[in-house]
Structure formats: structure tokens, C-alpha cells
């Protein structure tokens, strides 16, 4: 393979470059800002320059680190690594001037760095402004290196101490080799890599089966990059598939097991009892694709419905509310299981497994997912044996989960079965929605440090009365595979499961579960406040507000907090103020891009939510 090309910038006495020039398979290009005459006059510099040239390295003088493309011909512009040790504008330049220097430097690097290349920047302790600096400076008094690099499309992928004493014959100089050298004690080396580019979310259309009809529809934009990702396919190495296969293997030791391999439709139709309509992704068929009234009636005979529609439909008619006839993306696999049970296609004593993505509108939190992979296991048992079967089912899931967690992290998790009545208001969004579907007997919670009390990752339920017979009772367990993957692999943000960055799946070769190491460290966050008047007489739909933020930002909003609520005396008009925090978990997000997102969010709020900005 060709030698790795390494570019060194801002060399003082060239001692760092000289230490690297003997590395096997490396071609060094060492540069400095001064002329050759100025550089050669420094103590030891002439000796280092001779050594570099004798070893075949290139030495280039008068190089401006903010205009790198100008110094190298097109065939020589691709460097595998770029080093810049202790950059500084000089004299009494403050943090703002040095941020500007770094910003121009990173933009220049983007033009000459190889696609898989790295940029190494060594800074004195405290300058970078990351939690790795000890002590850490206040943000406004630091160089804010991660945010500055993000503006040029770079993410901080690693950080470690700059150990000057381990570099042979290295001697740190000061700005332009002044007598006073930089203090390298506690210095840190920041390693940056290219971020994946911002996603270009073009409209996505899907075609799915609804009864005997095929229906085309446009996928909601917030889900455009999450539809048909194939995480559960046979050739997938994604951790959600690995966990699903491990759980299935464990369950097959205790029960005869059958996977429902038929293609489960993405769309449902009907009225949902007890489920908040704002939690559903409603879908309108594409123009010209909507079935006729006669076709719709025929299709609905075989379509997937939620139970107990009659009672709620009657109430809506009495209250004058329109009955929703739109389609919606499936929020659960439970209706599919119930449809199969009603057709008598379930074999008693056999564990049936259904799995696939489900879709739910929800508020923005680190563990709230508008889409996740559900694993639903269903078992028909003889009446009177349901409690022992539930216990056997739960024990098997707990054993497999505990074994996986210990294998990955070496720590035994706390796994508990909690009664449905034992939860107060601390339900996560997954559990809260499951409660709306009803019939829950227990919650399955997995606890790890720092939250040993547990996060709800599954629910155990029995089928409603109309699905019971005099001899059989149907029990089921619904598991959130995405939450399990986060807990088992130490993934703190659900969005990372859906990243397009290849570095995520590279950490799980051939589906092996491992502790995840983030390739984007200390991502910068940007806070914006927005206040507005709510339309008179209307209840503000906060879920729709959060969903709009997801869509406009491309899932770059990590938090939305209500800061203030005000009611104007006399008129009764209500005003709300929210704090919106933008932060990416896997790609570069600069302050300018975040500000543009905030402006688009404000415009879309007026258009789609009918609010009046203040």
C-alpha cells in the first residue's frame, strides 16, 4: 500500500517532525509559518531539518495553515493525518482570535484531508473547553474547539494526553519560537475525523398491502431515513437483530417456537380505543391510489384493527366528533397477533414470535423513540396454567438478558418484574403507550448503573376477554429491542442506533454485542428560546410541537423544556416559552446550522401549529 502521508503544521524547531520521520510506511511533510532563514536560526532547528531531508521527508516554509490548498498540487493534496501542535495567534491574542484561527484551519483541512483521515490538534490544558480539561475553563473563556471544528464538518473522535516526554528529542517552543515555551503539562491531543454529511431527506413513498389492496403512501418526513432500514434482516449485524436472535434462541429452549415470517403490513386502519390520536402517525394514501368506497369495504374486512372500536365510535358520534378514516403507521404489532388469534392460526403451547418496526409520535427525550423494533411473543395456554407459563416466559427472558449483559459489560444487571399498579408517573413513553393498549399485567424493567431502579423495556399482558375461550388463555410479552440494545451496549442516545455512520456497525462485527464507544465525543449543544401566543380556545398539542421540531431539525433537537407560561390579564390570551436545545450524537453540528434550524422551526410553527410568535 502507498505510504501514509502526514502533514505537520506550525513546526517550531522541527523536533516533533524529526521524531516522526523514521516511522515505517509514513511520508512526512513538515511545514512552518516562517521563512527558511528565520526557522533555521533557531536552536536545533537546522539539525532537525537536515535529518528530515536525509530521510526523504519534505520540508516546506512560509505555510499558512488557513490556506493549505494553495501549497500543494492536486495530486499531493490528500493527507492521511494532519498535526497542529499548540496553535496560537501570538502575543496577547484572546480566545476569540484563536477560535477564528482554528475555524479557518479546520475549513482548510477539509480541502486536503483524505476521506478517512485524522486531524490532530494539541492544546494546553484548559484551552479546548471539553470535560477532559482538568480544571475545566468556563465555556466562554475557552477555545471551544469541538464547536469550531463542527462548523467545518469535523467531530471529535478521540482525546488523550499529549505526552511530550515520550517523543524522542522533542522540545516544545513558544509562539514563533519565542524564549517562553508553551506549558505542556496536562496538555491534550484532540483527534478529529470527518463527519457524515447532513442527510438529504427527499420524500419517500412506500407501497404496502392493506387487506386485498395495495396502497401507496408518502412516509412522514421525520421517518424518511428510518423506513425500510432492514435492521432485522438475515444479513444484518445490527445489535437489535442480535438481541432478537439471542432472545429467540433462549425461548426456544423452553417452548416450541415459530417465527411469523409473513410480511406484516405497515399500515393499520380503524379507530383506536384509549390511544391519544396525537401519538399516531396518520397517513393519507397517495393521490390516485386511494381505494374506492367499494374496494375499501372489501379491504377492511381483512385489515388489521384495534379491538373495541364500537364503543368509542358510538361515543364520538354522540359527541359530534368526526370518526378518523385515515390510515396510520402501525404503533404496535399487537393487532397483528390478535388478528391471527381470531383466525385460529395459533397452535396452543407454541410460542409465536412477531418482530418489526413500530411507529409512535412522542415527546423528545433520550429514551423516547418515534420508531423502534418490537419483539412480540405470544403463547396460547390452557386456562389455569397461565400464571406458571407467564413465570416461565419471564424467567427465560430475564436469564437471557442477564447473560447478555454480563457477557458485554461484566456486570450483572438488576432485572425485575413490576406490577402494573406499582408504577406512578415515572413511566417512560414506551410503557405509557403500552398502557393505552390495555390488558397489562406486569412491566419488565432492566436496571443498570447509574439507574439501578430500572428502565421499562417490556410488558406482559393477557389477551382481552373476547379472545379467550373456555379452555385457552393467550399471554404475550412485548419487548422494545432498541431500549434493550441501548442498555446492553451502553448506548446513551437512541438516535445512535439509526446513524448512517459506518463506524457504528463496525463496532459489532458479525453481530457480536460489545460495549459501544462513541466516535463523536463531547458534541456541542446550542440553546435557543422561543415564545408564542397559543390560538384562543385551543389546547396546545405538545406532541405535535415536538414532532415538528424532530422533522425540521432532522432529529437534531435533543431537549425541549417549558420555561414559562403566561396568561394575559383581561384578554386571557396564553403565552408559552420553550427552551430548545440542538445537539447531534453522531455528526458535526455547527452554531450557524443550528441557528438556521431554529429559524426554520419558528417559520414552520406559525404555518403548522397556528401560533403567533412573540
Summarize the structure.
Residues 521-614 form the FDX-ACB domain. With 614 residues, the chain is α+β, with helices and mostly antiparallel strands.
Describe this structure in words.
The chain is α+β, with helices and mostly antiparallel strands and 614 residues long. It folds into 3 domains: 4-194, Vaccinia Virus protein VP39 (Rossmann fold), CATH 3.40.50; 205-286 and 324-506, 2-Layer Sandwich (BirA Bifunctional Protein, domain 2), CATH 3.30.930; 526-613, 2-Layer Sandwich (Alpha-Beta Plaits). Helix content is 27%, strand content 26%. It has 15 helices and 23 strands. The protein has a 7-stranded mixed β-sheet. A 7-stranded mixed β-sheet has the order 10-14-15-19-18-17-16, with helices on both faces. Strands 21-22-20-23 form a 4-stranded antiparallel β-sheet, covered by helices on one side. A hairpin with a 2-residue loop joins strand 17 and strand 18 (451-462). The N and C termini lie far apart (61 Å).
Amino acid at each position: 500500500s502507498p505510504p501514509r502521508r502526514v502533514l505537520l503544521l506550525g513546526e517550531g524547531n522541527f523536533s516533533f517532525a524529526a521524531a516522526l520521520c523514521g516511522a515505517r510506511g509514513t511520508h512526512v511533510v513538515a511545514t512552518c509559518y516562517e521563512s527558511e532563514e528565520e526557522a533555521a536560526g533557531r536552536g536545533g532547528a537546522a539539525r532537525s531539518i537536515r535529518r528530515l531531508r536525509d530521510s526523504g521527508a519534505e520540508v516546506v516554509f512560509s505555510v499558512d495553515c488557513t490556506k493549505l490548498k494553495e501549497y500543494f498540487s492536486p495530486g499531493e493534496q490528500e493527507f492521511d493525518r494532519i498535526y497542529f501542535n499548540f496553535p496560537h495567534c501570538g502575543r496577547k491574542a484572546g480566545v476569540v482570535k484563536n477560535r477564528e484561527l482554528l475555524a479557518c484551519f479546520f475549513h482548510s483541512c477539509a480541502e486536503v484531508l483524505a476521506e478517512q483521515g485524522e486531524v490532530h490538534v494539541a492544546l494546553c490544558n484548559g484551552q479546548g473547553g471539553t470535560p477532559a480539561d482538568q480544571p475545566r475553563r468556563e465555556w466562554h473563556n475557552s477555545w471551544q474547539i469541538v464547536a469550531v471544528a463542527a462548523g467545518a464538518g469535523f467531530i471529535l473522535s478521540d482525546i488523550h494526553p499529549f505526552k511530550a516526554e515520550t517523543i524522542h528529542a522533542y522540545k516544545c517552543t513558544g509562539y514563533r519560537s519565542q524564549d517562553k515555551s508553551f506549558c505542556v503539562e496536562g496538555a491534550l491531543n484532540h483527534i478529529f475525523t470527518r463527519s457524515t454529511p447532513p442527510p438529504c431527506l427527499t420524500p419517500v413513498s412506500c407501497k404496502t398491502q392493506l387487506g386485498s389492496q395495495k396502497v401507496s403512501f408518502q412516509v412522514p418526513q421525520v421517518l424518511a431515513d428510518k423506513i425500510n432500514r432492514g435492521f432485522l434482516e438475515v444479513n444484518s449485524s445490527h445489535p437489535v437483530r442480535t438481541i432478537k436472535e439471542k432472545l429467540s434462541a433462549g425461548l426456544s429452549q423452553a417452548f416450541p417456537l415459530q417465527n411469523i415470517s409473513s410480511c406484516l403490513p405497515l399500515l393499520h386502519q380503524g379507530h383506536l380505543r384509549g390511544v391519544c390520536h396525537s401519538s399516531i402517525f396518520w397517513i393519507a394514501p397517495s393521490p390516485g391510489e386511494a381505494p374506492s368506497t367499494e374496494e375499501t369495504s372489501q379491504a377492511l374486512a381483512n385489515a388489521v384493527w384495534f379491538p373495541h372500536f364500537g364503543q368509542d365510535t358510538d361515543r364520538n358520534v354522540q359527541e359530534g366528533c368526526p370518526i378518523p378514516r385515515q390510515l396510520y403507521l402501525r404503533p404496535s404489532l399487537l393487532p397483528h397477533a390478535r388478528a391471527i388469534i381470531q383466525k385460529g392460526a395459533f397452535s396452543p403451547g407454541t410460542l409465536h414470535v412477531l418482530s418489526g418496526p413500530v411507529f409512535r409520535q412522542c415527546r423528545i427525550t433520550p429514551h423516547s423513540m418515534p420508531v423502534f423494533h418490537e419483539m412480540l411473543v405470544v403463547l396460547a395456554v390452557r386456562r389455569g396454567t397461565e400464571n406458571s407459563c407467564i413465570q416461565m416466559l419471564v424467567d427465560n427472558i430475564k436469564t437471557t438478558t442477564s447473560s447478555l449483559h454480563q457477557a458485554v459489560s461484566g456486570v450483572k444487571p438488576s432485572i425485575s418484574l413490576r406490577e402494573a399498579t406499582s408504577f406512578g408517573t415515572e413511566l417512560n413513553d414506551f410503557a405509557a403507550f403500552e398502557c393505552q393498549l390495555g390488558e397489562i399485567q406486569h412491566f419488565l424493567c432492566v436496571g443498570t448503573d447509574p439507574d439501578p431502579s430500572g428502565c421499562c423495556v417490556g410488558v406482559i399482558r393477557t389477551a382481552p376477554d373476547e379472545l379467550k375461550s373456555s379452555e385457552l388463555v393467550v399471554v404475550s410479552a412485548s419487548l422494545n429491542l432498541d431500549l434493550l440494545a441501548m442498555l446492553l451496549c451502553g448506548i446513551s442516545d437512541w438516535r445512535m442506533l439509526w446513524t448512517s455512520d459506518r463506524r457504528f456497525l463496525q463496532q459489532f462485527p458479525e453481530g457480536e454485542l460489545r460495549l459501544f464507544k462513541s466516535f463523536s465525543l463531547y458534541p456541542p449543544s446550542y440553546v435557543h428560546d422561543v415564545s408564542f401566543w397559543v390560538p384562543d380556545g385551543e389546547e396546545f398539542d405538545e406532541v405535535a410541537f415536538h414532532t415538528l421540531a424532530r422533522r425540521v431539525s432532522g432529529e437534531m433537537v435533543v431537549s425541549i423544556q417549558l420555561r414559562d407560561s403566561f396568561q394575559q390579564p383581561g384578554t386571557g390570551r396564553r403565552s408559552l416559552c420553550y427552551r430548545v436545545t440542538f445537539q447531534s450524537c453522531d455528526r458535526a453540528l455547527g452554531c450557524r446550522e443550528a441557528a438556521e434550524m431554529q429559524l426554520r422551526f419558528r417559520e414552520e410553527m406559525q404555518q403548522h401549529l397556528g401560533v403567533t410568535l412573540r
